[in-house]
Design goal:
Elements lengths: L2 H20 L3 E3 L11 E3 L1 H20 L4 E3 L8 H7 L1 H4 L1 E6 L6 E3 L27 E4 L3 E3 L9 E3 L5 H6 L1 H8 L5 E10 L14 E11 L4 H18 L7 E5 L11 E9 L2 E12 L1 H10 L5 E3 L4 E3 L2 E8 H12 E7 L5 E7 L10 E5 L5 H14 L5 E3 L5 H11 L3 E5 L14 E6 L5 E5 H12 L1
Parallel strand pairs: 3-9, 19-20, 19-21
Antiparallel strand pairs: 1-2, 4-5, 4-6, 7-8, 9-10, 10-16, 11-12, 12-13, 13-16, 14-15, 17-18, 21-22, 22-23
Helix pairs in contact: 2-9, 3-8
Bound molecules: glycyl-adenosine-5'-phosphate.
């Protein structure tokens, strides 16, 4: 990246962070107490956006398929799980201390982090004296019950996957499924990241959308390819074009030792190409570990060979918050348009795919001091409400109201005017102006057609 394009991208990121705060997508957690590093809260618009992304993932990955069921595991689990999975001994990042500024850094990201004393420099260029790296376990430790001793230790889960592995047999039985089949889960995960950074990209509390897909050992690679293509299609369906996602075939030396093949789907964030989702062929590693440690069989029976085997697993694991950030980056645009008095102005717009937009339609009475317009607009709002998130706004000039919804990413706006009331002729009575966010074009639509038109566009 040239220095001018890198400046442009970092200013784009600043604008997105500021828009997120101003419009109530995302706030710093505990803000009035000075915040908590690496932890974020979602405001009204952010909550809707995140929910729509999770709902669409859930729908595509479970409800529209015969071979995947869902579960919702606990965040706290028996410590034995984290011992068997290898997290307790190896889920760590290399940590270095700077003896000069007393800060701590991830040893493999010294070029990416700001230095404490010299903010324009990084720990690798500031000249501070660094210690040798040591392993820092990323799991948050806690105690279950009132006694804080070794026997009550457990951890906040650092991934949702392990709950799926340890419930594999239960789910297989109750769901009456046969291999190949998968278990999907969405939920919180926690990692005590050494240097959280890039807004919600790397945080200490985040959400994952994970699928563990179980198959016969001979079919592992085939399902790895299948899920890579499915997941790319899924991102396209929420407005992230394939051309913006880079598929990295993770090289042997960078893969987890138990993985036979991993793809990282990387998105072109303003701060660089970074991982959005990992799709890993985890073999039978996890089930084997849990079978061995628990003493409970996690095997399946092969009807053809009449023998038992441990299923192999392919895991598409996506971050909810990273997907939120990617759709925000993809949607953000600033463009010059003609304002009300024909002067040009900058319009900030979030071009969310209608499927995931937090609000689907703005409803505006042309004037708020005309009771007939207000009554009709409320009627239209109530008509749309059961099918979609709508926002009623009667404050200020209509152009300003459109701009506010553009900034919130609302794909459609409906204006109720004197034509709607039939004051300009019977043929326009009970029609409204439907405005499209992206083209800003307006058309006249009968109220009776509104629900059908909008429902088709957002589903
Ligand atoms: N079960 C496999 C697993 O957890 P991972 O690559 O460590 O694999 C999967 O995490 C996804 O979770 C990542 O691709 C990313 O989207 C998200 N993720 C991981 N750490 C994160 C963090 N600190 N902040 C936000 N998202 C994170």
């Amino acid at each position: 990246m040239s220095s001018s394009s890198s400046q442009r991208e970092s200013s784009k990121m600043e604008k997105i962070v500021s828009l997120c705060k101003r419009r109530g997508f995302i706030f710093q957690s505990s803000e009035i107490y000075g915040g908590l590093n690496g932890i974020w809260d979602y405001g009204p618009l952010g909550t809707e956006l995140k929910r729509n992304i999770k709902d669409y993932w859930w729908r595509s990955m479970t409800r529209l398929r015969d071979d995947v069921v869902g579960m919702d595991g606990a965040i706290l689990m028996n410590r034995a799980i984290w011992k068997a999975s290898g997290h307790e001994s190896t889920f760590s990042d290399p940590l270095v201390d700077c003896k000069t500024c007393k800060r701590r850094f991830r040893a493999d990201q010294l070029d990416l982090t700001g230095c404490g004393q010299k903010p324009s420099k990084t720990p690798s260029t500031c000249g501070g004296e660094l210690t040798e790296p040591r392993a820092f376990n990323l799991m948050f430790k806690t105690y279950v019950g009132p006694v804080e001793d070794d026997s009550s230790i457990t951890y906040l889960r650092p991934e949702t996957a392990q709950a799926i592995f340890v419930q594999f047999k239960n789910v297989l039985e109750v769901a009456r499924k046969k291999l190949p089949f998968g278990i999907a889960q969405i939920g919180k995960a926690f990692r005590n990241e050494i240097n959280p950074r890039n807004f919600i990209f790397r945080s200490r509390e985040f959400e994952q959308m994970e699928l563990e897909f179980f198959a016969h050992p001979t079919q592992g690679f085939q399902w790895l390819e299948y899920w890579k293509e499915e997941r790319l299609r899924w991102y396209e369906n929420i407005g992230i074009p394939r051309s913006k996602i880079h598929v990295l075939t993770v090289p042997d030396e960078a893969r987890a030792f138990y993985s036979k093949g991993t793809y990282d789907l990387e998105y072109e964030f303003p701060f660089g190409l970074q991982e959005l989702e990992g799709i890993a062929y985890r073999t039978d590693y996890d089930l084997k570990q849990h079978q061995q440690a628990s003493g409970k069989s996690l095997e399946c029976f092969d009807d053809e060979t009449k023998s038992k085997f441990i299923p192999h697993v392919v895991e598409p694991s996506a971050g909810v918050d990273r997907t939120v950030l990617a759709v925000l980056c993809e949607a953000f645009a600033e463009e010059e348009v003609k304002g009300e008095d024909d002067k040009s102005e900058i319009r900030t717009v979030l071009r969310f795919h209608p499927r995931i937009a937090p609000i689907k339609c703005g409803v505006f009475p042309l004037l708020k001091n005309k009771p007939e317009l207000v009554a009709k607009a409320m009627e239209v709002r109530d008509l749309l409400r059961p099918d979609m998130a709508v926002f009623y706004d009667d404050a200020g000039a209509i152009g300003r109201r459109y701009r506010r919804q553009d900034e919130a990413g609302t794909p459609y706006g409906v204006t109720i005017d004197f034509e709607t009331l039939g004051e300009k002729g019977a043929d326009l009575k009970d029609t409204v102006t439907l405005r499209d966010r992206d083209s800003m074009r307006q058309e006249r639509v009968p109220i009776t057609e509104l629900v059908g038109r909008l429902r088709a566009a957002i589903s």
